[in-house]
Amino acid sequence: MARRHKIVVTGATGTVGRQVVTQLMDAGIEVRALARDPESAVLPPGVQVMRGDLSEPDTLHAPMAGVEAAFLVWPFATAEGVSAVLDVVAEHTGRVVYLSSAAVRDHEQQVEHLIKRSGLEWTFLRPHVFAANTLRWTEQIRTEGIVRAPYGAAVMPPLHERDIAAVAVRALTGDGHAGAIYELTGPESLTQADQVRIIGEVIGRPVRWVEAAPDTARQQMLAQGWPPAAVDGVLQAQSELVTEPRPVTSTVQEVIGAPARTFRTWVTDHASAFRDTMKAARIHQYGDAGIIRYEEVLRPVPEPDQVLIRVAAASYNPSDAALRSGFLQAVLPVDLPYTLGFDVSGTITETGSDVSSFTVGDRVVGRLDYGGASAEYVVAAAGTLVKAPTTIPLADAAAIPVAALTAWQALHEHAHPTAGQRVLINGAGGGVGVFAVQLAKHTGATVIATASGRSAAAVRTYGADQIIDYTRTPLADALDGQVDAVINLAAISPEAAAELVPLVRPGGIIVSIATPVDPPATAQVTAVHFVARNDIEQLAGIVELIDMGALTVGVTESHPLSALALVHRRGEAGQTHGKITIIP
Questions:
Q1: How far apart are CA 106 and CA 521, in angstroms?
Q2: pTM of this structure
Q3: How many CB atoms lie within 10 A of CB 57?
Q4: Would you call 209 helix, strand, or coil by DSSP?
Q5: CA proximity to 555, closest of 390, 470, 435
Q6: Cys-Cys link to 395, which of 95, 313, 479, 550 (CB 3.0-4.6 A)?
């Protein structure tokens, strides 16, 4: 395969686009993913996500600049506007791969026609039935083990989205695909009833097809919000497939050199969607990061006072690593196996019978004192949650609870800084430091922060008046006089902790969430060591400050849940800074 250097992908968060991004990155190719809202796009680490909106062609120049090819998904029901988009694409690159469909509906015909006239080197992908269409049956299969729908005898060759993406990657990066129109199918013809049977075999429980009247199915689809024309088109196509099955093509194998994946393989890859199960990051024993297992477990069911949350994100805290290692057994004993994660943000999908404070669809954030957030779903007591901020992406809100509550309590319950005082925040580049700097600054205090060179710029943006690079300059040498309060957020040696005492004026205070500080009586300095507690009133106040724009949430990295062990290793090696979110 001829390797190209940079590819732009539209529809990057969709069923096929996400796979195109992943497979390009696996091939070592630089990827630019277009998104209307880059901050909310959850994609693999290393993807360059850039703002681009197909309905606003001028936004496409920056992401298209310097790319060798573009993967185009046209998500609109008409071809209006595609000419302007193609003008931008043609200005910056010479190759486009367009995801059309086997039906080649009117607007798809128009898009294909305009691409042919654009002067671009083009390839059209015309996939037949997506295997992913069977996800519409998930709720019936989970709750009843039955699929009620019409035309169980309709025959089709379901196609795995990974095969569509594999063909797209070949066309984007290799030679010999110019002017090709690829009709793509799976390797076998199956009735809808056969597909249901295979799903049951894979998930290990009987699932059967129950034939329903087309009129009943039509009314159900309309009630779910489907446009009437789309409903009639789907039912008409299924009716025709009973007597006129779609032919199987060998195109996938011819293009990528490997057989198309079977429907059974697709179901195996997506089995958790049909089971009452989910993915979770769990430990079965205490130990190093290698004991973290990314595995399939039963989805929890809420108790009467609980809600079920579809997790948008968890976050990594040093306390997660401490618990995993066994250091917290005395203060926080847990039952093994145990799902990690104290911070959660997400959307409520089910409420217990006694819950009246939240409804399904509410976006929430909270600290889970017994963990469980590092999963696709988690149950939580309704009384431990608050409404999530509306001004930041929901996933970013997972960075708030543990860190912000710790900073709040350190400043407002223990240090009590006032305007004009000098506050030293030791370890300001960490997750708690992000909030501690801002909260101290809001009191009117002069904020002096220690941070490494890689964190200094971020700490300065949060309002620090002076930054001391502790890797280069001893604190005592860098400070111009004593301070009124020290907030110690760093796990330092007892000797280093003792060196903080002379930095504080008589009558001042040292507040530490890490290494305890024990000042001699002659120092006339108060020392407090504390562990932050959960407090939903404080958390609600923090959320309010965020929505007012008075407090900023900084997320330095985001990683998939499957990479949690790597995040733990890096955190313990001191290779991380700020807040890291974990995306299921």
A1: 84
A2: 0.63
A3: 19
A4: strand
A5: 435
A6: 313
